[in-house]
Amino acid sequence: MEVDSLFGHTVAATSPVSSSSHGTLEKQHLPAVLEHYAALSSNSSTDMMRAQLQELQCHVQGQGLHGDRALDLLRLMRSEWQWETMDSARFAVVYRFAFWICRDAGKRNMPVDRAVAAWHLMLNGRFRLLERWLTFIRDESGVMTISEDTWRQVLDFTRCILGDMSNYDLTGAWPVLLDEFVEKLRKGRSSSFQKNLHSLADGPAAPNSDAMVAVSPTAGCKRRAVDVDGVAAMLSQMPFGNGVGVENCAVGPCGGAKKRCVGFA
């Protein structure tokens, strides 16, 4: 099967990715790996394509292309690929590819330090609150790894949420990590933090023309609001041996604690 290339030519989705004479993948091989990733991930709903994508990842990781080395090669490709000026659809592919290729071999998540470096590389000029986000992740969130779901939804966040967070819905299908970030910004725990937030909200738009398009999160790990009234009604019908009624039961506003969409690799 051949697919349109991100760079104007076609590639066969099943053809192998060659390596150097030393058995490692170098900078010049990265475009071919990206093309194969784009071809396979666009059809990842089928079991066959998912298996081929896994096979491709095993191949490139076996050739040493993963982790910090992959991130270093992405830095070298930045000027050549010019992703700052890519349209939103093409950039989304490169953005997802960055997470896929920069994970450590055999790991599902990315170490937080590498994720911070990758976000700085990929979203510089596309995310008004990038430095605030990176500071929050690195110094305040307490997380050790970043999941693919969180990585993908951060891109959605940059495209649909205003600089002042006025259109962010805490009950929406966002990872809790983003909820906590927005809550921190809204509370303005320090005067300087609040001042910078208003400055960003009043400033010029980011270069990306799609930055303010209202789109919904596209990744998994969704949360839905719990029907608290329905739960309370069911509890009221249940016999309690100790005589405790539903009026004494602590039911939180969301029916329970949220869980982070961030795990350990």
From TrEMBL:
This is Defective in cullin neddylation protein. One of its GO terms (molecular function) is cullin family protein binding. GO terms for biological process: protein neddylation. It comes from Tetraselmis chuii. Neddylation of cullins play an essential role in the regulation of SCF-type complexes activity. InterPro entries: DCN-prot (IPR014764), DCN1-like_PONY (IPR042460), PONY_dom (IPR005176). One of its GO terms (cellular component) is plasma membrane. Residues 1-186 form the DCUN1 domain.
